[in-house]
Amino acid sequence: MVRDMNGQRGLLRELIGDGRPALSLTAVALFLSGLFAIFLSFRRQFLPQDVAFLGMTAQDLCTFADCRIVRFMFHDRVAFGGTLIAVATLYLWLAAFPLRQGVAWAWWAFVASGVLGFGSFLSYLGYGYLDSWHGTASIALLPVFLTGLVASRPLATIRVTGWLGTAEGLRAPALVRVGRWGLLATGAGLVLAGLAILYLGSTEVFVAEDLGFMGFTREMLDGINLRLVPLIAHDRAGFGGGLATVGVLVLTCGWYASPSRAFHQALLLAGGAGFGCAIGTHYVEGYVNPTHLAPAFAGAALFAGSILCEVVGWRQQTGKT
Fold it and tell me: What is the pTM of this model?
């Protein structure tokens, strides 16, 4: 069928299309933001607004505690960058596959994760540091995201039950079902961990292992610069919000999505970025306290075992090699 025969369809409406391009653009922006956060951390650079707020550069702060305060800050920032890449990867898959097919749960996955992801920026009210770049980026990206949601709402008309409760899910091999339950447990764990870190960033900021690594008490950090703890709290809360957002997406996709090659690839990319950055940065920065790392390793092991079970079981079931 030929549409718009009278030429009344505008350029902007054509670019927006069914809303998925705007949602994919949001994903690309998040992906690039994650890479940028990781890049700056490896360059050992604070953002200009961080320097303006703190009155110190990363090099100035490195003169304290053999640079462990700076290394601690950058370990949070790399982990946050990993969560942005993970969210972006799952957003791209959601827009390209389930939302394109018109299933309602994919649209609601965008809504739920967007509320948590964008809403977590408001946690700055708890620690007092308004990151102007973060705020500007959020304000610029939010209309794109909302436009995508509004335009794609008519697509989301097909309602389905959770995959494990469908005929396909009930007939799936035990290995596939075990893997899927493991993915759901991984998602739940990420949500709980992310919310705990988000709360911590807005309140106490540090756990005992953090202060032990830096070799400073909170009072000693205040003695260096009264704005230092609020800046660190901003990084912690941002990572917590990103982690919880990833958890919401893994939970939702794990509950509804049927096994497929693209879904497994998206999960592997998202999990590799998220867990890889969160764990790897600790070794780069020398923060290798076993107690502190144990939850991350447990989550990574659960995720890896779960996706392996599902992929192997699914490929055996479908006869793929």
Answer: 0.91
